[in-house]
Amino acid sequence: MSRFPEALGLAFAAALIAAPVAAGTLGLGRPALPEEIEAWNIDVRPDGLGLPEGSGSVEVGEEIFTEKCAMCHGDFGEGAGRWPQLAGGAGTLTGARPVKTIGSYWPYLSTVYDYVRRAMPFGDAQSLSADDTYALVAYLLYLNDLVEDDFTLSKENFAEVEMPNAGGFVADDRAAEPFAKPHEVCMTGCKASVAITARAAVLDVTPEGGAPAGAETEDGPAAAAPEPDAKAEPAVATDPAPAAAPAEAAFDAALAAAGETLFKKCKACHKIEEGGKNGAGPALHGVFGRAIGHADGFRYSKAFEKLAEDGGVWDAAALDAFLASPKDFAKGTKMSFAGLKSAEERAAMIEYLKSASQ
Amino acid sequence: MSEARSTRRGFLAGGAIAAGGALVGGAARAAGDPAIMEAQPWARHLGDGVDARPYGHPSAFEKDVVRRDVPWLTADAQSSVNFTPLHELDGIITPNGLCFERHHGGIAEVDPAQYRLMIHGLVETPLVFTLADLKRFPRVNRVHFLECAANSGMEWRGAQLNGCQFTHGMIHNVMYTGVRLSDLLAEAGVKTAGKWLLAEGGDASGMTRSIPMEKALDDCLVAFKMNGEALRPEQGYPVRLVVPGWEGNMWIKWLRRLEVGDAPWEQREETSKYTDLLPNGKARRFTWEMDAKSVITSPSPQAPILHGKGPTVLTGIAWSGRGAIPRVDVTIDGGMNWVEARLDGPSFEKSIHRFYHEFDWDGRPLLLQSRAHDSTGYVQPTKDELRKVRGTNSIYHNNGIQTWAVNENGEAENVEIS
C-alpha cells in the first residue's frame, strides 16, 4: 500500500495531490505509530537506552529463577546437561577449558537484561515483566558474586554495575595476522616427507559412529574435541517400564489436533516424536499407558521417584489430575508448568498424548 | 543418526557392488549386461502422470541426500544446527531443501498476511511495510554463500568429525531475489547520526545483530526468494536479510524490524557469542567477514572412491567473504606438490566456486588438500598457522586447510598431517 492511501482515497488522487514524498523515494509503506514502535522496540544498549522503568531484588529473582530457569540452567546457574552455564568461570579464559559465563565473559549488563527480556524463558519468550527481568538480572549478578543478597537492581542504578570482563574485547585484527598478507606459495617439492599426526577415526564422534556421553559443547558446535569420560551424565538405573498395554488404539483426531497446538508450550522441555530424547523433561512419545516415572534414562525428582515406586500408570485419569495441577499431583516436581485449568484443554492434551503413543 | 548409519551400510554395500561390478562387467561381455538385455519395468509400464507430483521431489534413490545433525553438539533441536550434504552436491547452487539450518528458537511459521517490516530509530519517517510493499521496490538477483561463523569450529583441537558434511556443511549458496536495503533505508530517510543498524527477527529467540551502516548501504539485501521460489520457513520465510560475505548469524531470518542508531547494541550474539577468544584471554569482537576457504567434497569420508584405480575426479568448493576466487591449488600427496585446480561454473563475488582436478589414481594412499586464493590475494592458511596465533578456543572463523587421507580401498578419513 502507498503511504497515505486511506487518508487520500484513490491512488490517482494521491498522485494529483502530490503526497509528501521525499525526493528519490517511492512513497511506499506507511508511517509507524509510536505505540507500534513501543510494542516491538525492547532492545537495551550499554548506555542504558531502552531500559524500562522498574526494579527487582535478588530475593525475588531467586524465586523466579527457581521456578522458570533452574530446570535448564541449574539451581546455581551451573547449567544442567548441555544447557548454558550462567555463573562461575572467573579466571578460566586463558586456560585450556574456558568457562564463558555472564560473570566471566559478558562485557555488558545491558546484554543480560535485553536477552532475558527478549528470548527467555526458552519457549515462553517475552513473558516476563520489566520488574521480573530486573529481579532475574539481579539474581544472576548475585550468582556470579558481583552483588550481595540484599541488592536491588533498578533503572536508576543499572549503569553503576561494572562487568568483570568489560575490558576483555579487542577489535577484529585478523588482517594483521602473519599469514593474512598476500604471498607467493610453494607448488613443487614443498616438503620432503609427510606424516599423519591426528585422525578423526580415533575420536569416533561422527554421528554414524554414535554420540559420546557429555561432549564439550558451546551454543552451536562444540569447540573442543570431546572427552568421552568428561562430564558424563549420571545414568539413573531405571528398569524398563512394565509394559502396560496401550488402552485403546482409537483417538479423536480433531481433539488431538487441538492438543497439539496446546503442546507448543511444552515443546521446549518435552520431546514427543518417536525416538525423541529426554530434555529438561522426559520424552513423551508413548507416555499414554506408560508407567509413571519410567521414561528411560530420565533423572526424576524425588516426587516422581516416589510415584514410580507406587506403581501408577499414565492413564486418562492420572494425566488429567497431573495436568490440572502438577505441583499437587507431584509435590516437588521439577516441572515449572502451572497446569491447564480448563478441562477441555486437558482433554485435548490427553488426546494428543494418546495419539503420540501409538 | 539412523539415516547416517544406513549411509554407512549403503557405502559398504556399495563397495560390495562395486567389487562385484567388475565381475558382472566381465560376464556382460559374454552374455550381455542384464541392465541392457532385460527390459526394465520403467521402460515397459506407464509411470505416474503429470499431477502425481505437484511439487517435485528428488528420486527415491536419493533419499540419503539430506541435512544431518550431530546430536551431541546441542541441548535440543530448537536451538541447534544441521549440516548441508556437501559431499553429494555439485555445481555452485545449494538446493533449497538441503540448505543447512541454524535456529535459536525453532522455525517461526510466519503468516505472510501478518508480516510487517518496521524501520525506526534515527530516521526522518519511521515506516511499516507489508510484504506487498516490499515487492514494489526495484528487485535485484544475487548469488551469495551464507556460512556460519562456527563452520569447522569442532576442528580447532584436531580432526574430529568424519565427513565434509559435518566439518564444512554449515554453508549454502543461493540466488536471492530481493530489494536493496539501502532503498528501504532511503525511503525512511536515515539521519546523519545514524551509523548503525539493529536487525531483529520475529522468531522465538528475537534474534538481533548490530550492522554498521556502511555495510547496510553497500550490498545488503532484504530478500523474499531463494533460487527463484519463496524462502523456505527454515530460511526465514517470508523475508530475510542478506549480508554478503559476512557471518551467517547476521543474516537475520523472519526479519521484522530495522532500528537505526548511533552506536552498536552489544547484543548477546555479538558479545557472549560470535566473539573469538584468543590465548591471552582477550576476545576479538565484530569479526564479521568470512575468510577465504575451500574443501574437497569428493573424495571425502562420506564420498569414498568406489571405482578403484584409474581416471578419478576430485572436486570441491571455495569461497571468500571479500570477493571472488580466481585460483584454487590442490595436492594429492599431502602438500609436497601442488597443482592449480580447474575452476568451472559461474564466478560471483562472495559466492561458492566449484573446482575440479582430474587425475589417474594409481591405487596408492592419498593425502588430499585444497588451498583457496581470493581476489584480494589472501591465501587460505593451514590449521597450524591459525592455531599458532589464535590457540584452540576461538570457536569461530576456522578457515584452515582440510586434509582427507584416502587409503588403498578408496576410503577417506579426516586427518591432520605434518
Oligomeric state as shown? heterodimer
Structural class of chain B: alpha+beta
Return the average pLDDT of chain B rounded to an integer: 93
Q: What CATH first level of the largest domain in chain B would be assigned?
A: Alpha Beta
CATH topology assignment of the largest domain in chain B: Sulfite Oxidase, Chain A, domain 2
Structural class by helix and strand composition of chain A: mainly alpha
Low-confidence stretches of chain A: 4-19, 209-249
Please summarize what this structure is.
By secondary structure, chain A is mainly alpha-helical. Helices cover 30% and strands 4% of the residues of chain A. Chain B folds into two domains: 189 residues, Alpha-Beta Complex (Sulfite Oxidase, Chain A, domain 2), CATH 3.90.420.10; 123 residues, Immunoglobulin-like (Sandwich), CATH 2.60.40.650.
Folded structure, characterized:
- The complex is a heterodimer of chains A (358) and B (418).
- Chain A has 358 residues and is mainly alpha-helical.
- Chain A folds into three domains: 5-31, no CATH class; 44-207, Cytochrome Bc1 Complex, Chain D, domain 2; 253-355, Orthogonal Bundle (Cytochrome Bc1 Complex, Chain D, domain 2).
- Chain A has helices at 5-8, 11-17, 34-40, 58-68, 70-73, 109-119, 130-143, 200-203, 253-262, 302-310, 316-324, 326-329, 343-355, and strands at residues 30-31, 55-57, 152-154, 169-170, 196-199.
- The longest helix of chain A has 14 residues, at 130-143.
- Chain B has 418 residues and is of the alpha+beta class.
- Helices cover 17% and strands 29% of the residues of chain B.
- In chain B, the strands form six sheets. In chain B, strands 5-4-13-8-9 form a five-stranded mixed beta sheet.
- Chain B is globular and about 80 Å long.
- Chains A and B meet through strand 1, helix 3, helix 6, strand 4 and strand 5 of A and helix 1, strand 1, strand 4, strand 5 and helix 6 of B.
- Strand 5 (196-199) of chain A pairs antiparallel with strand 24 (412-417) of chain B, so a sheet runs across the interface.
